[in-house]
Amino acid sequence: MAIDPLVLLPAAGIAVLIVILYIRLVAGRRDARLTPEGLTVFLRDQEPEREVTRFVISEDKRYALIHWRDGGDIGLVRGFGDKLVYQSLAAEELSKCAWHTEGRALKIPRQGFAFPPIMFVPADMDRRAIEALMKGETDAAA
Amino acid sequence: MQLPDPVTFAIPAFVLLILIEAMIGRYAPKKSNYEMRDSAASLMMGLGNFAIGLVNFGIVGAVSLWVYQYRLFDIGYHWWAFVLILFAEDFCYYWFHRLSHEHRLWWAAHINHHSSQYYNLSTALRQTWTGGLIGTWIPWLLLSLIGFPLALIIFQKGISLVYQFWIHTETIDRMWKPVEAVMNTPSHHRVHHAINPRYLDANYAGIFIIWDRMFGSFVPEDKTEPCRYGIVKQIASFNPLVIAFHEWAGIVSDLKRAKSLKAAFFHLFGPPGWSEDGSRLTSKMIKEREQARLSQRAANAAD
Question: What is the pTM of this model?
């Protein structure tokens, strides 16, 4: 017995929509909120051989910039669902980052196909630390 | 002989089991973790795969029938043919799956299935959109050459896909030992989806785990090292188009930058993670690096 694809495909589409709505109700949207402790554990799994000198977490707790002792690149951690994603920003990418909204938000542009741009809004006290981090200075006040 | 399509008939069960598992997650989050956008992406990938499969079917069927003309045996639809193809199809699946992890061209088509950091029944439906276009069905031509009729091959492929649905779950822990020894189970398949260095490139099985045990790719789940799911370089998008094509975009970008024909060849057919300057790591390199790190740590502890 075969079911006509013209019936099957719309039926599958409707089933998918119903399941998505159900999951929306039962599980909902989840967003990770970065904490220093959670970030430390994540980075230990992600880059076990590297040592963090310091990190700055954005005001909305969705993103973090990481400075590594061995220098070279800057790490970017972003919340993705209630999981985290790590990106490495090399000098070429760092040069494309720019401050927006009167110096309140750092725009980090799209990296490749799978990493959308972000607006990193640091707490007031962290802005200088980020500027130093982007310049590769390791001894600026965090 | 006309055989039913097991996948079509399993769809209501797929839906029902996802609904149950999502509900379990509400009360026991350690047993099941759903995120609406992640599951929506997985389901859209499944729907896209289903639609593209209808188009691909004509081409794959025609090639299979062409090969069938040169079959070695006339197997037909005897009862033992159903038993034989259960193992023969699973053997083809193992090699398709292993090659899909070991060579970037096929990995580009398969990566989407691994791209979720969540591991639940909806992940099972995060299926490829591009596999059919680049011939990931070729291993199954062996079955036509042996002499299995096309309808029987399609039927068994459906059975395999239905079987592999329920193993994408954290709700089921370990099963009865004899089952774990022979069958692919949620525990074995969690390892397959994990990115912990020790778990990389392991447990390619479809239905029977015996192939992994036979060909040296079996790794048991270790309770002391919980699985971290996804891909080595996690993506940050729930967009099905990005999920389906991001590795293809990566290949195009690498080919543009390739400094030699050899490099271009390796970007296409080498292991995922291969790079000219060694700036990225293959699974083998990640495993070796982790091994070296653990040895160093043990040596430091001994001092």
Answer: 0.93
